[in-house]
UniProtKB/TrEMBL annotation:
Keywords of this entry: Cell membrane, Hydrolase, Membrane, Transmembrane, Transmembrane helix
CDD domains: PAP2_like_2 (cd03392)
Domain Phosphatidic acid phosphatase type 2/haloperoxidase as annotated: residue spans: 55-165
Main location: membrane
Keyword NADP found: no
The keyword Cell membrane appears for this protein: yes
Membrane-crossing segments per the record: 20-45, 52-71, 126-144, 150-168
Taxonomic placement: Bacteria, Bacillati, Bacillota, Clostridia, Lachnospirales
Name by which UniProt lists this protein: Phosphatase PAP2 family protein
Subcellular location: Cell membrane
Pfam families registered for this protein in UniProt: PAP2
Membrane topology of this protein: Multi-pass membrane protein
Origin species: Lachnospira intestinalis
Amino acid sequence: MELKILHWFEELHNPVLDFLMYQITCLGNGGLIWLVIAAAMLFVLPKRYRKTGATVVAALLISLVICNGIMKNLYQRVRPFHADPTFENLYRVFDRIYDWSFPSGHTSASFAAAVAIRLWNKKEGIGALVLAALISFSRLYLTVHYPTDVLASVVFGSAYGGAAYLLMKKVLEKPGRLRKVLVEGASYKTLWKK
């Protein structure tokens, strides 16, 4: 059934969408776009975004450890284009993908970060969720994941984002240097003062 769904996605292929989906999927490589967003929140945007940026970093770390470090190796599901060689292998770049399909690291990281953003900042969180959905869709379009890989990863990633939010709220309730920097807007030098 899942392979049929992916073959349906292949019917959507055209040069413009192929290019766009490849570029969108590249945004999620290594959580790159989310790391850039977190860095902007921590160091460039107004101080009120610092706690959001720190939460995004925590969410990405949780996703990396659980999804990529543990679950992929536990389930060891082969990628769709390895299971069915009839899939068009766009850009041939995917010939070099030899890690496992389940769960989707791109999707997990994207939803972890997007949910973390949404929980602190409702308005900005909508854009983050749309970007996460686009990255997730690109993984199906490019046939590098099965639908269940992506759907499960939406759930897992959302849970990681929620866990990071709760963890950060708990940490920031306590007085200390981290609270001063992330909540009260003190200089980052405060973290290293004796």
